[in-house]
Protein backbone atom coordinates (compact mmCIF):
# COMPACT_ATOMS: atom_id res chain seq x y z
CA UNK A 1 0.00 0.00 0.00
CA UNK A 2 2.79 2.40 0.95
CA UNK A 3 4.77 1.47 -2.19
CA UNK A 4 1.76 2.15 -4.43
CA UNK A 5 1.22 5.48 -2.75
CA UNK A 6 4.89 6.41 -3.21
CA UNK A 7 4.80 5.38 -6.86
CA UNK A 8 1.65 7.40 -7.50
CA UNK A 9 3.20 10.42 -5.78
CA UNK A 10 6.37 10.06 -7.84
CA UNK A 11 4.32 9.72 -11.02
CA UNK A 12 2.30 12.83 -10.20
CA UNK A 13 5.48 14.76 -9.46
CA UNK A 14 6.98 13.63 -12.78
CA UNK A 15 3.84 14.61 -14.67
CA UNK A 16 3.78 18.00 -12.96
CA UNK A 17 7.42 18.54 -13.83
CA UNK A 18 6.82 17.53 -17.44
CA UNK A 19 3.85 19.88 -17.64
CA UNK A 20 5.94 22.74 -16.24
CA UNK A 21 8.67 22.09 -18.81
CA UNK A 22 6.09 21.94 -21.60
CA UNK A 23 4.48 25.19 -20.45
CA UNK A 24 7.86 26.89 -20.22
CA UNK A 25 8.80 25.69 -23.71
CA UNK A 26 5.43 26.62 -25.22
CA UNK A 27 5.64 30.16 -23.88
CA UNK A 28 9.11 30.49 -25.46
CA UNK A 29 8.46 28.41 -28.55
CA UNK A 30 9.34 31.16 -31.03
CA UNK A 31 12.65 31.88 -29.35
CA UNK A 32 13.41 28.16 -29.25
CA UNK A 33 12.58 27.99 -32.98
CA UNK A 34 15.04 30.86 -33.67
CA UNK A 35 17.87 29.03 -31.92
CA UNK A 36 16.95 25.76 -33.61
CA UNK A 37 17.04 27.39 -37.05
CA UNK A 38 20.34 29.08 -36.22
CA UNK A 39 21.99 25.80 -35.23
CA UNK A 40 20.37 23.80 -38.03
CA UNK A 41 21.37 26.19 -40.82
CA UNK A 42 25.03 26.56 -39.81
CA UNK A 43 26.37 23.38 -41.53
CA UNK A 44 24.03 23.81 -44.52
CA UNK A 45 25.23 27.36 -45.13
CA UNK A 46 28.85 26.21 -45.01
CA UNK A 47 28.05 23.35 -47.40
CA UNK A 48 26.11 25.69 -49.66
CA UNK A 49 29.08 28.04 -49.93
CA UNK A 50 31.30 25.18 -51.08
CA UNK A 51 28.78 23.63 -53.48
CA UNK A 52 27.77 26.97 -54.91
CA UNK A 53 31.31 27.75 -55.95
CA UNK A 54 31.50 24.46 -57.80
CA UNK A 55 28.28 25.16 -59.68
CA UNK A 56 29.25 28.65 -60.82
CA UNK A 57 30.98 29.01 -64.20
CA UNK A 58 33.09 31.93 -62.87
CA UNK A 59 34.64 31.09 -59.48
CA UNK A 60 36.17 33.99 -57.52
CA UNK A 61 39.86 34.62 -57.74
CA UNK A 62 41.75 34.05 -54.48
CA UNK A 63 45.30 35.49 -54.32
CA UNK A 64 48.06 33.22 -53.15
CA UNK A 65 48.57 33.00 -49.42
CA UNK A 66 44.94 33.88 -48.66
CA UNK A 67 43.51 30.43 -49.16
CA UNK A 68 43.32 29.68 -45.42
CA UNK A 69 41.59 32.94 -44.42
CA UNK A 70 39.24 32.54 -47.37
CA UNK A 71 38.41 28.97 -46.30
CA UNK A 72 37.78 30.04 -42.69
CA UNK A 73 35.55 32.83 -43.91
CA UNK A 74 33.57 30.49 -46.16
CA UNK A 75 33.14 27.64 -43.70
CA UNK A 76 33.07 29.44 -40.31
CA UNK A 77 32.64 33.20 -40.34
CA UNK A 78 29.85 33.51 -42.92
CA UNK A 79 27.78 30.58 -41.54
CA UNK A 80 28.17 32.00 -38.02
CA UNK A 81 27.06 35.43 -39.27
CA UNK A 82 24.00 33.85 -40.93
CA UNK A 83 23.12 32.02 -37.70
CA UNK A 84 23.46 35.28 -35.76
CA UNK A 85 21.11 37.13 -38.11
CA UNK A 86 18.63 34.24 -37.90
CA UNK A 87 18.25 35.03 -34.19
CA UNK A 88 17.01 38.50 -35.22
CA UNK A 89 14.78 37.32 -38.05
CA UNK A 90 11.55 38.36 -36.26
CA UNK A 91 12.77 41.78 -35.12
CA UNK A 92 15.36 42.89 -37.74
CA UNK A 93 14.75 40.82 -40.87
CA UNK A 94 16.72 43.17 -43.12
CA UNK A 95 20.07 41.84 -41.85
CA UNK A 96 19.26 38.26 -42.84
CA UNK A 97 17.78 39.26 -46.20
CA UNK A 98 20.74 41.45 -47.12
CA UNK A 99 23.23 38.76 -46.11
CA UNK A 100 21.35 36.09 -48.09
CA UNK A 101 21.43 38.28 -51.23
CA UNK A 102 25.17 38.93 -50.76
CA UNK A 103 25.86 35.22 -50.36
CA UNK A 104 23.90 34.52 -53.53
CA UNK A 105 25.89 37.08 -55.49
CA UNK A 106 29.26 36.19 -53.95
CA UNK A 107 29.10 32.45 -53.36
CA UNK A 108 25.98 31.27 -55.23
CA UNK A 109 24.58 30.02 -51.92
CA UNK A 110 20.78 30.04 -51.93
CA UNK A 111 20.35 28.30 -48.56
CA UNK A 112 20.10 31.50 -46.42
CA UNK A 113 17.56 32.94 -48.85
CA UNK A 114 15.05 30.20 -47.98
CA UNK A 115 14.90 31.04 -44.26
CA UNK A 116 15.10 34.80 -44.97
CA UNK A 117 12.12 34.90 -47.35
CA UNK A 118 10.11 32.49 -45.22
CA UNK A 119 10.67 34.55 -42.05
CA UNK A 120 9.75 37.87 -43.65
CA UNK A 121 6.62 36.43 -45.30
CA UNK A 122 5.54 34.74 -42.05
CA UNK A 123 6.14 37.61 -39.61
CA UNK A 124 5.68 40.84 -41.56
CA UNK A 125 2.77 42.19 -43.56
CA UNK A 126 4.58 44.75 -45.73
CA UNK A 127 3.99 43.15 -49.13
CA UNK A 128 5.84 45.90 -51.03
CA UNK A 129 9.12 45.24 -49.23
CA UNK A 130 8.54 41.52 -49.57
CA UNK A 131 8.20 41.95 -53.33
CA UNK A 132 11.41 44.03 -53.47
CA UNK A 133 13.40 41.49 -51.51
CA UNK A 134 11.97 38.65 -53.61
CA UNK A 135 13.06 40.50 -56.76
CA UNK A 136 16.55 40.94 -55.33
CA UNK A 137 16.78 37.24 -54.53
CA UNK A 138 15.52 36.36 -58.01
CA UNK A 139 18.11 38.64 -59.62
CA UNK A 140 20.86 37.09 -57.50
CA UNK A 141 19.69 33.59 -58.50
CA UNK A 142 19.73 34.47 -62.20
CA UNK A 143 23.16 36.06 -61.80
CA UNK A 144 24.67 33.08 -59.98
CA UNK A 145 22.85 30.40 -61.99
CA UNK A 146 22.32 31.80 -65.50
CA UNK A 147 19.85 29.64 -67.42
CA UNK A 148 22.13 29.24 -70.46
CA UNK A 149 25.56 28.85 -68.82
CA UNK A 150 24.73 26.97 -65.60
CA UNK A 151 24.55 23.23 -65.30
CA UNK A 152 22.05 23.54 -62.44
CA UNK A 153 18.35 23.69 -63.39
CA UNK A 154 17.59 27.37 -62.74
CA UNK A 155 13.83 26.81 -62.80
CA UNK A 156 14.03 24.28 -59.98
CA UNK A 157 16.32 26.58 -57.97
CA UNK A 158 13.81 29.41 -58.30
CA UNK A 159 11.06 27.12 -57.02
CA UNK A 160 13.16 25.81 -54.10
CA UNK A 161 14.80 29.09 -53.07
CA UNK A 162 11.98 31.54 -53.87
CA UNK A 163 8.51 30.10 -54.51
CA UNK A 164 8.37 27.46 -51.76
CA UNK A 165 9.65 29.73 -48.90
CA UNK A 166 7.29 32.53 -49.94
CA UNK A 167 4.30 30.18 -50.17
CA UNK A 168 4.96 28.48 -46.84
CA UNK A 169 5.74 31.78 -45.11
CA UNK A 170 2.60 33.49 -46.38
CA UNK A 171 0.50 30.49 -45.31
CA UNK A 172 2.08 30.42 -41.83
CA UNK A 173 1.66 34.17 -41.36
CA UNK A 174 -1.95 34.13 -42.53
CA UNK A 175 -2.74 31.19 -40.28
CA UNK A 176 -1.15 32.83 -37.25
CA UNK A 177 -3.02 36.08 -37.88
CA UNK A 178 -6.26 34.14 -38.30
CA UNK A 179 -5.71 32.28 -35.02
CA UNK A 180 -4.83 35.56 -33.26
CA UNK A 181 -7.96 37.21 -34.66
CA UNK A 182 -10.13 34.28 -33.60
CA UNK A 183 -8.61 34.32 -30.11
CA UNK A 184 -9.14 38.07 -29.84
CA UNK A 185 -12.71 37.66 -31.05
CA UNK A 186 -13.34 34.90 -28.50
CA UNK A 187 -11.93 37.09 -25.71
CA UNK A 188 -14.03 40.02 -26.88
CA UNK A 189 -17.15 37.87 -26.97
CA UNK A 190 -16.35 36.57 -23.50
CA UNK A 191 -15.96 40.13 -22.20
CA UNK A 192 -19.23 41.10 -23.87
CA UNK A 193 -20.91 38.09 -22.29
CA UNK A 194 -19.63 39.12 -18.87
CA UNK A 195 -20.89 42.65 -19.47
CA UNK A 196 -24.30 41.32 -20.50
CA UNK A 197 -24.41 39.14 -17.40
CA UNK A 198 -23.49 42.10 -15.19
CA UNK A 199 -26.15 44.23 -16.86
CA UNK A 200 -28.70 41.47 -16.34
CA UNK A 201 -27.71 41.23 -12.67
CA UNK A 202 -28.00 44.99 -12.25
CA UNK A 203 -31.38 44.99 -13.99
CA UNK A 204 -32.60 42.15 -11.77
CA UNK A 205 -31.35 43.92 -8.65
CA UNK A 206 -33.16 47.07 -9.75
CA UNK A 207 -36.34 45.09 -10.37
CA UNK A 208 -36.09 43.47 -6.93
CA UNK A 209 -35.53 46.90 -5.37
CA UNK A 210 -38.61 48.24 -7.12
CA UNK A 211 -40.70 45.27 -5.99
CA UNK A 212 -39.48 45.61 -2.40
CA UNK A 213 -40.18 49.31 -2.43
CA UNK A 214 -43.64 48.95 -3.97
CA UNK A 215 -44.77 46.07 -1.76
CA UNK A 216 -42.81 45.81 1.48
CA UNK A 217 -41.92 49.45 2.08
CA UNK A 218 -45.46 50.67 1.41
CA UNK A 219 -46.99 48.03 3.68
CA UNK A 220 -44.56 48.77 6.50
CA UNK A 221 -45.12 52.51 6.09
CA UNK A 222 -48.87 51.97 6.36
CA UNK A 223 -48.34 49.84 9.48
CA UNK A 224 -46.21 52.58 11.07
CA UNK A 225 -48.86 55.20 10.33
CA UNK A 226 -51.63 53.09 11.84
CA UNK A 227 -49.47 52.35 14.89
CA UNK A 228 -48.77 56.06 15.35
CA UNK A 229 -52.46 56.89 15.11
CA UNK A 230 -53.32 54.17 17.59
CA UNK A 231 -50.63 55.42 19.98
CA UNK A 232 -52.14 58.93 19.93
CA UNK A 233 -55.80 57.92 20.14
CA UNK A 234 -55.54 54.96 22.53
CA UNK A 235 -57.15 55.46 25.97
CA UNK A 236 -55.44 52.43 27.49
CA UNK A 237 -51.82 52.97 28.53
CA UNK A 238 -50.79 49.40 27.67
CA UNK A 239 -52.28 49.72 24.21
CA UNK A 240 -50.50 53.02 23.62
CA UNK A 241 -47.19 51.51 24.78
CA UNK A 242 -47.59 48.51 22.45
CA UNK A 243 -48.49 50.80 19.56
CA UNK A 244 -45.38 52.86 20.27
CA UNK A 245 -43.22 49.75 20.16
CA UNK A 246 -44.79 48.77 16.84
CA UNK A 247 -44.23 52.27 15.45
CA UNK A 248 -40.57 52.37 16.57
CA UNK A 249 -39.84 48.90 15.26
CA UNK A 250 -41.52 49.69 11.94
CA UNK A 251 -39.52 52.88 11.52
CA UNK A 252 -36.27 51.04 12.19
CA UNK A 253 -37.27 48.39 9.65
CA UNK A 254 -38.04 51.10 7.11
CA UNK A 255 -34.64 52.72 7.67
CA UNK A 256 -32.82 49.40 7.15
CA UNK A 257 -34.98 48.62 4.13
CA UNK A 258 -34.17 51.98 2.52
CA UNK A 259 -30.46 51.35 3.02
CA UNK A 260 -30.76 47.96 1.35
CA UNK A 261 -32.75 49.45 -1.51
CA UNK A 262 -30.04 52.07 -2.00
CA UNK A 263 -27.54 49.29 -2.62
CA UNK A 264 -29.83 47.26 -4.86
CA UNK A 265 -30.86 50.13 -7.12
CA UNK A 266 -28.89 50.81 -10.27
CA UNK A 267 -28.19 54.39 -9.24
CA UNK A 268 -24.63 55.79 -9.24
CA UNK A 269 -25.67 58.41 -6.70
CA UNK A 270 -26.99 55.79 -4.29
CA UNK A 271 -24.55 55.27 -1.47
CA UNK A 272 -24.00 52.11 0.50
CA UNK A 273 -25.52 52.02 3.98
CA UNK A 274 -23.39 53.98 6.41
CA UNK A 275 -25.19 53.01 9.60
CA UNK A 276 -23.32 50.35 11.60
CA UNK A 277 -24.71 46.85 11.33
CA UNK A 278 -25.92 45.28 14.60
CA UNK A 279 -23.40 43.22 16.58
CA UNK A 280 -23.41 41.36 19.88
CA UNK A 281 -23.48 44.61 21.86
CA UNK A 282 -26.88 45.33 20.31
CA UNK A 283 -28.45 42.09 21.53
CA UNK A 284 -29.76 43.75 24.68
CA UNK A 285 -31.91 46.07 22.58
CA UNK A 286 -33.18 43.15 20.49
CA UNK A 287 -34.08 41.13 23.62
CA UNK A 288 -35.84 44.11 25.17
CA UNK A 289 -37.88 44.69 22.00
CA UNK A 290 -39.17 41.11 22.06
CA UNK A 291 -39.85 41.28 25.79
CA UNK A 292 -41.78 44.50 25.29
CA UNK A 293 -43.79 42.75 22.58
CA UNK A 294 -44.81 40.12 25.17
CA UNK A 295 -42.31 37.31 24.53
CA UNK A 296 -40.94 35.45 27.56
CA UNK A 297 -37.19 35.49 26.79
CA UNK A 298 -34.45 34.19 29.06
CA UNK A 299 -30.98 35.44 28.09
CA UNK A 300 -27.74 33.89 29.40
CA UNK A 301 -24.06 34.36 28.62
CA UNK A 302 -21.45 31.68 29.34
CA UNK A 303 -17.69 31.86 29.29
CA UNK A 304 -15.60 35.01 29.21
CA UNK A 305 -16.77 37.63 26.70
CA UNK A 306 -13.98 38.97 24.50
CA UNK A 307 -13.66 41.08 21.35
CA UNK A 308 -14.46 39.19 18.13
CA UNK A 309 -14.45 40.10 14.47
CA UNK A 310 -17.27 42.29 13.19
CA UNK A 311 -18.44 39.70 10.66
CA UNK A 312 -18.58 37.01 13.32
CA UNK A 313 -20.57 39.19 15.72
CA UNK A 314 -23.01 40.14 12.96
CA UNK A 315 -23.56 36.46 12.18
CA UNK A 316 -24.16 35.64 15.85
CA UNK A 317 -26.61 38.54 16.13
CA UNK A 318 -28.53 37.36 13.06
CA UNK A 319 -28.67 33.83 14.50
CA UNK A 320 -30.32 35.13 17.70
CA UNK A 321 -32.62 37.36 15.68
CA UNK A 322 -33.71 34.51 13.41
CA UNK A 323 -34.31 32.19 16.37
CA UNK A 324 -36.48 34.74 18.17
CA UNK A 325 -38.39 35.52 14.98
CA UNK A 326 -39.11 31.83 14.36
CA UNK A 327 -40.29 31.42 17.95
CA UNK A 328 -42.65 34.39 17.58
CA UNK A 329 -44.03 33.06 14.30
CA UNK A 330 -44.50 29.39 15.08
CA UNK A 331 -44.61 29.12 18.89
CA UNK A 332 -46.16 32.29 20.32
CA UNK A 333 -46.83 32.57 24.07
CA UNK A 334 -44.04 30.07 24.86
CA UNK A 335 -40.88 30.57 26.88
CA UNK A 336 -37.74 31.11 24.84
CA UNK A 337 -34.19 30.53 26.02
CA UNK A 338 -31.35 32.37 24.29
CA UNK A 339 -27.75 31.62 25.20
CA UNK A 340 -24.32 32.80 24.10
CA UNK A 341 -21.31 30.67 25.13
CA UNK A 342 -17.73 31.89 24.64
CA UNK A 343 -15.37 28.95 24.18
CA UNK A 344 -11.62 28.94 23.76
CA UNK A 345 -11.81 28.83 19.98
CA UNK A 346 -15.52 29.00 19.16
CA UNK A 347 -18.69 30.88 19.90
CA UNK A 348 -21.93 28.91 20.41
CA UNK A 349 -25.31 30.57 19.90
CA UNK A 350 -28.47 28.79 21.08
CA UNK A 351 -32.12 29.86 20.80
CA UNK A 352 -34.69 27.28 21.93
CA UNK A 353 -38.41 27.48 22.59
CA UNK A 354 -40.99 25.10 23.99
CA UNK A 355 -43.84 23.48 22.09
CA UNK A 356 -46.34 25.90 20.56
CA UNK A 357 -49.50 26.48 22.54
CA UNK A 358 -52.83 25.42 21.02
CA UNK A 359 -54.80 28.59 20.20
CA UNK A 360 -58.27 28.95 21.62
CA UNK A 361 -61.07 28.74 19.09
CA UNK A 362 -61.87 32.20 17.81
CA UNK A 363 -58.70 33.67 19.39
CA UNK A 364 -56.75 35.50 16.71
CA UNK A 365 -54.14 37.11 18.93
CA UNK A 366 -51.56 34.39 18.34
CA UNK A 367 -52.05 33.70 14.65
CA UNK A 368 -48.61 33.19 13.14
CA UNK A 369 -47.68 35.69 10.45
CA UNK A 370 -46.96 34.42 6.96
CA UNK A 371 -43.47 32.99 6.54
CA UNK A 372 -41.46 32.62 3.36
CA UNK A 373 -39.17 29.86 4.61
CA UNK A 374 -35.98 31.65 3.57
CA UNK A 375 -34.78 32.82 6.98
CA UNK A 376 -32.97 29.64 7.98
CA UNK A 377 -31.54 29.22 4.47
CA UNK A 378 -30.08 32.72 4.59
CA UNK A 379 -28.76 32.13 8.11
CA UNK A 380 -27.15 28.89 6.98
CA UNK A 381 -25.34 30.76 4.22
CA UNK A 382 -24.15 33.37 6.71
CA UNK A 383 -22.82 30.73 9.08
CA UNK A 384 -21.04 28.82 6.31
CA UNK A 385 -19.47 32.07 5.09
CA UNK A 386 -17.62 32.46 8.40
CA UNK A 387 -16.72 28.75 8.56
CA UNK A 388 -19.25 27.74 11.20
CA UNK A 389 -21.96 25.10 11.62
CA UNK A 390 -25.73 25.54 11.94
CA UNK A 391 -28.19 23.05 13.41
CA UNK A 392 -31.91 23.81 13.41
CA UNK A 393 -34.67 21.33 14.16
CA UNK A 394 -37.37 20.14 16.58
CA UNK A 395 -36.62 19.06 20.12
CA UNK A 396 -37.88 16.02 22.01
CA UNK A 397 -40.64 18.00 23.80
CA UNK A 398 -42.05 19.37 20.54
CA UNK A 399 -40.22 22.68 20.61
CA UNK A 400 -37.65 24.07 18.25
CA UNK A 401 -33.98 24.84 18.58
CA UNK A 402 -31.53 26.88 16.53
CA UNK A 403 -27.85 26.38 17.36
CA UNK A 404 -24.88 27.93 15.56
CA UNK A 405 -21.23 27.21 16.34
CA UNK A 406 -18.83 29.83 14.96
CA UNK A 407 -15.02 29.84 14.98
CA UNK A 408 -14.13 32.67 17.33
CA UNK A 409 -10.53 33.78 17.11
CA UNK A 410 -9.87 36.84 19.30
CA UNK A 411 -9.03 40.13 17.60
CA UNK A 412 -7.30 43.29 18.67
CA UNK A 413 -9.29 45.76 20.67
CA UNK A 414 -9.13 48.41 17.93
CA UNK A 415 -10.63 45.94 15.42
CA UNK A 416 -13.50 44.86 17.67
CA UNK A 417 -16.97 46.36 17.21
CA UNK A 418 -17.86 49.10 19.67
CA UNK A 419 -20.53 48.47 22.27
CA UNK A 420 -23.39 50.90 22.59
CA UNK A 421 -24.75 49.66 25.88
CA UNK A 422 -24.55 47.04 28.60
CA UNK A 423 -25.39 43.44 28.01
CA UNK A 424 -28.62 41.88 29.20
CA UNK A 425 -28.45 38.93 31.51
CA UNK A 426 -31.19 36.74 32.97
CA UNK A 427 -34.85 37.41 32.48
Could you explain how this protein is built, in words?
The chain has about 425 residues and is of the alpha+beta class. It has three domains: about 25-150, no CATH class; about 200-265; about 280-355 and about 370-405, 2-Layer Sandwich (Heat Shock Protein 90), CATH 3.30.565. Helices cover about 65% and strands about 10% of the residues. The protein contains eleven helices and five strands; from the N terminus they run αααααααααβαββαββ. It has helices at about 1-25, 30-55, 65-85, 95-105, 110-125, 125-145, 155-235, 235-265, 285-290, 310-330, 375-385; strands at about 295-300, 335-340, 345-355, 390-395, 400-405. A five-stranded mixed beta sheet has the order 1-2-3-5-4, covered by helices on one side. Strand 1 (about 295-300), helix 10 (about 310-330) and strand 2 form a beta-alpha-beta unit. Helix 2 runs antiparallel to helix 3 and helix 5 runs antiparallel to helix 6 (about 125-145). The chain starts with a helix and ends in a 20-residue tail after the last strand. Keywords: ATP-binding, Coiled coil, Kinase, Membrane, Nucleotide-binding, Phosphoprotein, Transferase, Transmembrane, Transmembrane helix, Two-component regulatory system. This is histidine kinase. It holds the Pfam family HisKA_3. It is an enzyme of class 2 (transferase).
For the structure shown, list the relevant keywords:
single chain, Heat Shock Protein 90, five-stranded mixed sheet, disordered C terminus, 5 strands, Sig_transdc_His_kin_sub3_dim/P, kinase, 11 helices, 3 domains, EC 2.7.13.3, two-component regulatory system, alpha+beta
Amino acid sequence: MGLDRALSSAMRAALDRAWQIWTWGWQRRYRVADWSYAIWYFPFVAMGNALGQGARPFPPFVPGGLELPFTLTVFLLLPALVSLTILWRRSRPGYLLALSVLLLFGFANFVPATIALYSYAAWFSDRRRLALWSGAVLAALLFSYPPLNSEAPTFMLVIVALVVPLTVGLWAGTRRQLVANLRERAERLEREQHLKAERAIIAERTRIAHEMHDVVAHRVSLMVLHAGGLEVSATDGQTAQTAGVIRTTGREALAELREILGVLRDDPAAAAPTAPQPVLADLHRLIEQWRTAGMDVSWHTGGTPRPLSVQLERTAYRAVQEGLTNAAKHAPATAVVARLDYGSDELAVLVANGPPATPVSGDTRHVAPPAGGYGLAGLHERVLRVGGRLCAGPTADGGWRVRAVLPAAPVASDEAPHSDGPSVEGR
